[in-house]
Structures are given as C-alpha cells and as structure tokens.
Specification:
Blueprint (H helix, E strand, L loop, with lengths): L8 H16 L7 E10 L14 E6 L18 E6 L2 E10 L5 E8 L9 H15 L3 E6 L23 E6 L8 E5 L7 E4 L8 E4 H12 L17 H13 L4
Parallel strand pairs: 5-6
Antiparallel strand pairs: 1-4, 2-3, 4-5, 6-7, 7-8, 9-10
Helix pairs in contact: 1-3
Length: 254
C-alpha cells in the first residue's frame, strides 16, 4: 500500500467503491447484485478539523454595509467571502438479493478518516455497524488509512487489539454472530485478496485489494500529483520510514 495515497483519499475512495462493485458483479450470479449507496455527514467547522473531503464552500456576499467609514478618496470595494461547513457524502457497497425484494445480504465499507475522528462521521458509522449486526447483514470493513482512531467491529472482541497493524480488514458473518475475523496488513506487505461473505448457500466472493489499488493509481495518474520527496501524511517513523525511504530511493523518486 502506498501511504501517500491517503492525501488523495476522497478520489481514491470513490474509485475503490466503483472498482470493487465491478469486480464483484461477475461473481454474484443471477440472484445477487452489488450497488453503491451513500450517507451524508455534517461536521462542526469549529470542532475537530476534517482531514479529507470538501470542507468548505465559498459564498459571495455584497460590499460592506452603510456602517462602513467614509473615505476621502474613491476606494474600490472588495468582495467578501465566508467559509461555511459543507456536508460530506460517504459511499459504501451493498450486495442485495433481487429475489427477495432487495434484501441486503452484505455491506462493504472503505473506512474514511472522518469515520475515525470524533463527530457526526464516527457516530453514523457506528450506527451502521449496529444496524448490520441487528439485521444479520454481513459486514466487511476495509481500512486503508492511518489517520484517526480505528474502531472496526472486530475490536469489540477481546484480543483483537493485540494484532494492531498499519492497515486492517474486519469481516463479520451473520451466520456466525459470536465470531469476527481480522486481516492484519503491514505497510510493507502486498494487500491481500479477501473473502466477501454472501448468503449461507453461496461461496464467498473474492476481492483482490492490491489489484484494485493498482488500477485506481494508474487510472487517476496519482504519480503526476504526488511529491515523494516530501514526507507523507501522517508521517512514517521507525521501520516503516526506513523501508519507505529505501524503496523510493531505489525507484529514483528521492
């Protein structure tokens, strides 16, 4: 995984949702389909700053009102712009059963930094986790970001925190509600192919995360807008920093 891609998360997130949906459709047969859905979150601009997303819009107002001080010479009046909070649209995937009026079988989430910071984004994400468990809907959470405090469903099981890693995938099957599976992923490792649970009678679908990331990288031409000479954000340290520096030097990017 390229840690510099977190700076492009909004675009990358949308690409991953689209590419995952396309890769799943041929594996779902005639009864199941994958669809992208969305939720809206609103953050307080005075509170914790959002790291990713359309944080502001520019609103044009008129010139100063009648209370402005008179000037002895003609002075050009500037336009005033005010930053206002802007809702964020977060997309995720649902696999639905078309033979049962669109019953949701599986939800796939690509976790965003806004889901890992205090505020509306985290609250609504936690509500989604509870909705899946209550409705016995399979839940796959894919976290390929390092910002914020990670709260995947698997972390409600004792022992999961002992396997912290740079990136993680949590998998909860509705048929085994007392169990949850964790894919720990180091920065230095190739992203794995992961299982996507469907109905109890269906074989798991497979999503090859590294292939999707590579496709998104090439399609969006991130190499044209990424400065590998500078530290990524959040910055790496220790073994990860040394590994990244060596790799970039070998590739001629430093």
């Amino acid at each position: 995984m390229d840690p510099y891609l977190e700076a492009h998360w909004l675009d990358l997130h949308n690409s991953m949702v689209h590419l995952t949906k396309a890769s799943l459709q041929p594996q779902l047969g005639d009864a199941l389909v994958a669809r992208s859905e969305e939720r809206i979150i609103v953050e307080d601009p005075i509170g914790v700053p959002r790291l990713i997303g359309p944080d502001v819009r520019i609103v044009e107002h008129g010139p100063p009102g009648e209370g402005a001080q008179p000037a002895r010479v003609a002075v050009a009046e500037p336009l005033m712009f005010v930053m206002e909070s802007e809702p964020i649209t977060q997309r995720y995937l649902e696999i639905i059963d078309v033979t049962t009026d669109g019953r949701v079988i599986t939800v796939i989430e690509f976790v965003s930094p806004t889901n890992k910071l205090p505020g509306d984004g985290r609250r609504k994400y936690q509500e989604k986790q509870e909705e899946c468990r209550d409705a016995r809907v399979n839940l796959v959470e894919i976290d390929l970001t390092r910002s914020g405090e990670r709260e995947l469903l698997v972390h409600r099981w004792s022992g999961a925190r002992q396997h912290e890693s740079t990136y993680q995938v949590s998998l909860w099957r509705a048929t085994s509600p007392s169990r949850c599976w964790l894919y720990p992923i180091r920065l230095q490792d190739r992203l794995p192919a992961i299982r996507i649970p469907l109905r109890p009678t269906d074989p798991d679908a497979i999503v090859e995360l590294q292939e999707l990331i590579d496709t998104a990288y090439e399609a969006s031409r991130y190499d044209r807008t990424t400065d590998y000479r500078r530290p990524c954000g959040p910055p790496l340290d220790g073994e990860e920093a040394a590994w990244s520096d060596e790799l970039l030097k070998a590739a001629g990017k430093r």
